[in-house]
Amino acid sequence: MSSSSSSAAPDTTAATSGRVGRSGRARPKRGEGQWALGYTEPLNKNEQAKKDDNPLNVRDRIRYVYSKRGFASIDPADLRGRFRWMGLYTQRAPGFDGGKTAVLEEEELDDEFFMLRVRSDGALLDSAKLRALGSIGTDFARGTADITDRQNIQYHWIRVEDVPEIWQRLDDVGMTSLEACGDSPRPFLGSPVAGVAAEEIIDATPALEEIKRRYIGDPAYSNLPRKFKTSASGHPGHDCVPSVNDVSFVGTVHPEHGPGFDLWVGGGLSTNPMLAQKLGVWIPLDEVPDAWSAVAGVFRDYGYRRLRSRARLKFLVADWGVERFREVLETEYLHRELVSLPSPEPVAGASDHIGVHPQKDGRFYIGVAPVAGRINGEVLTGVGDVVERYAADGARLTAHQKLVVLGVEEQHVEDVITDLREIGLEARPSGWRRATMACTGIEYCKLAIVDTKQRAIDLVASLEQRFPDLDTTISVNVNGCPNACARTQVADIGLKGMLVLDDEGEQVEGFQVHLGGALGLDPVFGKKLRAHKITSAGLDDYVTVVVGNYLADREPGEEFARWAARADEVLLRGEKSLSEAAS
Questions:
Q1: DSSP alpha helix (H) spans, 160-231
Q2: Domains in the chain, please, with CATH?
Q3: What is the pLDDT of residue 330?
Q4: φ, ψ at 204 (rounded to 5°)
Q5: Of 103, 327, 429, 548, which is the most buried if we count CB atoms within 10 A?
Q6: Can you give the pLDDT at residue 30?
Q7: How many other C-beta atoms are found inside a 10 Å radius of the C-beta of residue 124?
Q8: pLDDT band at 8 (very low <50, low <70, confident <90, very high)
Q9: Max Cα separation, the chain?
Q10: DSSP 579
């Protein structure tokens, strides 16, 4: 692959002198802090902190100063800002309920411990990597380790004094937490079955490896307007949720040039959900890193920096439109036209890779499900032991908080399934366990309002008893706040945490409900029912009624999302139970 960068950092000297954009367009009447239009003076405290010191520089201060002097020595600008570029956030101090989340200042919610994210970037985790990850959870994180829907491992209870040793263990096995958070290129999503799936169009792994080699830790890309999420997969099932990433490379086949990638930009959820716009192009594998840096360059230079709430690429794409975005990408950054090709549609079927599946080399991969991504250090170490015991290739994490073991010989498949089950990972899970996700929640997150992980685990256990023989998959995504880290809006049943009033008028944990969201063949955001909220305590019963109504009212072959789009509102609110009426 080419090693040249296709877009350089802007000339800030020229920018501050008042030039127009490189495309010749006039400045907007109200500056949004776009560097390419000459607005380089910081417009908020986050931009000021990044200008004061490149966040990448905090690594040495953590290693040589803060880890030796302790939490009290940390500069607040580092603690609540630049630490994030090293994958570190302060976690929520115990004793503050959800009502305090939006009332107290951030520093009042800070505990003296950290959440740490370790990026996997779709890479294969061999036994050494898995054991290193497990040892970090066991030795430094009070046993914690969660699989996130960004294919990260996330720890809690991390002390700043232990960070250098943790980094050393990661370095020893070729892993990192660098830019796992912050206004930077966040960890990449890659297909969990890249290189082995029989139906795969093209393996994106070399492109992801090259992007990481060139640009992670590069100061030219460490000061973006906000987070920048990437996915690249050649699997026809679109297993890296390309519709909700800032930039996605999606496997496609050109009738003359062969396999390559389409480019989708501007996806994202949170409080203003938007699906990615499809450029309808064909990009060969070895040009993907240049295309990635070009998109990142457009975001860096033209992205909105004045308001944090509008500092995502999706807002720029929405304002410009896909045609103008492509024009700027080609003329100012790539300096060539992209090959046009109609965008691919995903194939039908599940893309979470749970269960036993044949590989193209005659071996098998096995997808297993923890509950809502919750595992621990011992589980990771146990997976490493299983990989070594059966000479498997390794494991990958998924975009659905799951794990896939690859390269299992046929004669070992059932033994691997048994051994994984013994450490809490099920290859033949219930539909509820398979299709439920949850964010970190109030247990550790300073933005959260309600409990999510344990609530999701309890909900799964309840629904497994109430619907033991469910013949379809219904996804349930549980989120602790409006930020949609668990992709609330694109689940069959999406639950957004909030405080609600119970029957006695007391303020308690609860959820706003989104129903009928989906990605894939028919992408749609779940609809919210006007003024409809449920308490956390009443969640099991509410879901039971709604699912029962679906089962009683559905047409043959009708999926939950399509039923929710047409069903009577009283059925969706749970105000009427068809199953009770029938009995």
A1: 163-172, 205-215
A2: 12-26+29-41+200-340 (3.30.413.10), 50-172 (3.90.480.20), 434-582 (3.30.413.10)
A3: 98
A4: -85, -5
A5: 429
A6: 53
A7: 19
A8: very low
A9: 76
A10: H
